[in-house]
Amino acid sequence: MYLGDSNDTIVNQALTLSKEEVDFKFDTEVMIVETNENPNEMGAIPYTDDVDLIKYSEVEKICEYRKLENENKFLNTKLKDNEAIFLIPGNLINAFNFNVDFKLGDKNISIIDSYTMNLFGTFRDGRPIIIVNDDTYDSISKILGSEKDSISCITLKNFENTANISKYIEENSNIHVYSVDNFDKESYNFVNSIYFIGLFLSLVFIVSVGSIMYFKCISDASKDKPRFDTLRKIGTSQEYINKSIFKQVGIFFLLPGLVAIIHSIVAGYSVASFFNQDGKISTLITILVFSLIYLIYYLVTAKKYINLTK
Length: 310
What we know:
The chain is of the alpha+beta class. The protein has helices spanning 9-18, 56-65, 71-75, 134-144, 162-172, 185-233, 238-274, 280-309, and strands at 2-3, 22-34, 50-55, 83-87, 101-104, 107-115, 129-132, 148-156.
């Protein structure tokens, strides 16, 4: 990805020399516009002074080549004149109301929806993007006459030689290339370490809770044994006693489990929304893992309880 034409001579030379097969090429245009005339004060859009303005049709074309986050939500929205979609950058915490009205030239633009959609990665330095329909874009372009950038994206079927191609282009032209080799491995490793610590602490807490509940039930089993002996003497079958124990232990495990699951759903949704992430899959996996471990503790506890009360 770079600023310029996808048919640039140097770029084509680099691709020819590399003998790599191109999957697709895509050119688009963005217009840099200011949404806050006074940087010393908070503008209409929180913590946003300038944005990339892009046509709705251009984003539609990008969706044909790439699978984007919130793609279906975007494609189901048809923008009217002077309506806009605000794409929240990943580094901007989603704790504000971005559905606001603001002025661009003599037009009053109304943001009707806001969500994350990673169009250009970190290529544009995390600058927010506003999508408007084609007519609104052309009108604003005539009114403001703002600077426009042509962005070219070339995707190869084989990414292994990307570093050499980028190096050749940058050495023989003034083009700065953003490629998969610009990926920040240190940040990725840092995030992975945070995930590992969180996962480890979660497992520790789950095992601790399960163990506490297990030993609580086992300690009660010795006290309840005389009561179950009395039930046997009056003719109650062991099968009926076993069923009652499973229900008793189940109720004991059920309430804390339900509270934990509800807390996970609410917390997962809040954190994911706050940091502009889609947390549905991770929350679901967490709940399934917790439920599985919790179920194992429940079965082990119930069977141990039965053995101690026989």
